[in-house]
């Protein structure tokens, strides 16, 4: 049986100790498209080590920077074909600004396994602390495994973030590069879905698609730049549901609303007028 929720739920994965350098941070920012305006002082905060600051979504790649093989969806009670898997949701909460260089310990557990009938949703939570025990960030993500439902588990509930019924406070267009996925994969996600046309077709896509976490990071940067004066230290958390794919070279259009909870946003792919991110909320300190 590919999924056994009784074994999976609550299982703790191997503790991971990892480190990162300013060069890793610079690579991540460049993989998100930072530096398109190389003389802009705000862009230099992402691309020049003199006043380097770390976009909080770096938390999604920090532990995987030295991974050079495609990921395997193999956890206690879970064995799933990688071609069946797409990212479902992602949330990062930073407990303090991420340092430009550091060493940390990550502890991950499987929070839930949901049965959506035709698919399963696997929810993980990772807590990261510095080597002296100080909390750095908490990340929560889910993956959507097509064809793996029907095992009789709970369907769970969805956390909705409904934008106000009015015009957005800002509309931000962010171009992606045709080679965006080729750059981003150097941050540790070597899933062939994002580079291999044959593998992409076997997974049900006409062509390789952009990493969901690349889109997630690009949107976080765009909103931080437009709404928080490019001050990444003001970001407290960012959560989103992946509502659709992005093809490298497409333009992301993000609509942002100021709310009491934070900055609610939606993102679409302009060329196809297709949803990309939904139920998204960025909070500030």
Overview of the structural elements:
The protein contains six helices and twelve strands. The chain is of the alpha+beta class. A hairpin with a 4-residue loop joins strand 10 (251-258) and strand 11. The longest helix is centred in the last third of the chain and has 16 residues, at 212-227. It comes from Amycolatopsis tucumanensis. Residues 18-147 form the Peroxisomal multifunctional enzyme type 2-like N-terminal domain.
**Class from secondary-structure proportions:** alpha+beta
Taken as a percent bin, the fraction of beta residues is 25-35%
- Give the integer mean of the pLDDT values: 95
- Percent helix, as a range, is 10-25%
Helix/strand order, N-terminal first: HEHHEEEEEEEHHHEEEE
- Please give the number of β-strands: 12
C-alpha geometry: globular
Figure out the total of helices: 6
Give the CA-CA distance, first to last residue: 45 Å
Low-confidence stretches: none
Largest sheet: 10 strands, antiparallel
- The side-by-side strand order for the widest beta sheet comes to 1-5-6-7-4-9-12-11-10-8
Radius of gyration: 18 Å
Domain Peroxisomal multifunctional enzyme type 2-like N-terminal: 18-147
Region (Disordered): 151-170
Family: Belongs to the enoyl-CoA hydratase/isomerase family.
Protein name: MaoC/PaaZ C-terminal domain-containing protein
SSE arrangement:
Layout: H1 5-8, E1 16-20, H2 22-31, H3 41-47, E2 73-75, E3 78-80, E4 85-94, E5 102-115, E6 119-130, E7 135-146, E8 170-175, H4 180-184, H5 197-202, H6 212-227, E9 235-242, E10 251-258, E11 263-269, E12 274-284
Antiparallel strand pairs: 1-5, 2-3, 4-7, 4-9, 5-6, 6-7, 8-10, 9-12, 10-11, 11-12
